[in-house]
């Protein structure tokens, strides 16, 4: 059968379940169940109406095309992406999912991550001293010392750089890059309010997370920002591949609708105040490749695993908050 014999059509939300059933034959149904809300899709049917190919654009995962017929894959991709309804559906439903579950990962969004990682090394080499004040603010960048299990300062070991944008211009450039800002704008837009021309950024941090090191324990960023606003977006940029071994981010989906008590930490987390998920809470590892951006509601309960790897680091940058001033 020549490719011309196939009918390619963009799919709307109500047809996605059928697409998922079809995909189940290729990729396993479980994988698709929780991804359906955010996808734009196109399907190809043969003369008898049978499905012979599917292309899905998942805003979080990128494209997935299943089609064994030469030439049809690109037609499927074109149909899904050209469909204004499909594209808008994908963007809007991903944004809705963000406000419902409290976070969204954009894997590998920033190709410049390796270069920024080098710049962070330069920044660390330029450090003129470290402070043990975990909250150091208002004096430009502050290099904060890491502590050991007894809560004592480890000489020469940096836990984090506060106000990292003051130590390296690369930091703000990255947070203000069109790829990041556009996604933040989309998230605000779906709330039904006019999105501002720009979003404001506040507070920047860098964590080198050396082998054996930590960054943060369980918390809601709002606790440290001194606000309970449910509309502030926090941002993490992972400059290296992150996984369970080298200290990936962990989140409790949906927890941004709840309040958690924060109490003074102990041991490796002696500095700062931290919370605890409930025993019944689902804890999700956010495993992402280098250059990934994770946007999350500043009320979402999150943490980072300890870096258990013997040699790998886990460099990451964090933005205290994005906020669209007139909708807060
Ligand atoms: O290190 C991480 O992955 C998370 C950092 C964080 O939550 C923060 O800086 O507030
Ligand atoms: Fe945080």
TrEMBL record:
Its cofactor is Fe cation. InterPro entries: Oxoglu/Fe-dep_dioxygenase_dom (IPR005123), Phytyl_CoA_dOase-like (IPR008775). One of its GO terms (molecular function) is metal ion binding. Residues 197-326 form the Fe2OG dioxygenase domain. This is Fe2OG dioxygenase domain-containing protein. PANTHER family: ECTOINE DIOXYGENASE, PHYTANOYL-COA DIOXYGENASE DOMAIN CONTAINING 1. Belongs to the iron/ascorbate-dependent oxidoreductase family. Gene3D superfamilies: q2cbj1_9rhob like domain.
